[in-house]
Amino acid sequence: MPDKIAVIGDKDSVLAFKAAGVEVFDATTAEQARGLIKKLSQGQYAVLFIAENLAEQISDVLDKAKTQTFPAIVPIPTSAQPTGYGLRGIKSDVEKAIGVDIIFNKED
User: Fold this and answer.
1) CA distances from 96 to 32, 35, 58, 89 (A)
2) What pLDDT, in 10s, does the model give residues 1-42?
3) Cα–Cα–Cα angle for 71, 88, 69, nearest 5°?
């Protein structure tokens, strides 16, 4: 069973994770991120955090990953301007699961 955690993003944004024992992988382009996710998804990783600016560019990969048990791929905001992509994804997943928007407390 996978038991490792990794983070993918530019060095400045993800370096602090190293202090917490998370494996850090540098990626600044969508293609680098795609390659890393493909590589890390075949091994021992239970969770992959990815900079939301990269995640937004490879949403097709994230959509496919949602159909698999491992790894869970979680977009996170970085030191760059936050895009809100990660929060929108969480909001959407919660709404699908329970039928109500509990994050922004609005019903559609």
Assistant:
1) 30, 29, 21, 11
2) 788 999 999 988 888 889 888 999 999 999 999 999 999 988
3) 15
Domain spans in the chain, listed from the N-terminal domain onward: 4-80
The DSSP output letter for 5 is E
Decide: helix, strand or coil at residue 107: coil
56: CB partners within 8 A, 6+ apart: 75, 83, 85
Indicate the average pLDDT of the chain.
84
Confidence at 103, pLDDT banded by 50, 70, 90: low
What's the alpha-carbon Rg for the chain, to the nearest Å?
Answer: 14
Q: Are 69 and 28 in contact (CB under 8 A)?
A: no
pTM for this structure? Answer: 0.79
Output the six-digit token pair for 46.
């239970």
Half-sphere exposure of 1 (CA within 13 A, CB side): 2
The CATH homologous superfamily to which domain 4-80 belongs is ATPase, V1 complex, subunit F (3.40.50.10580)
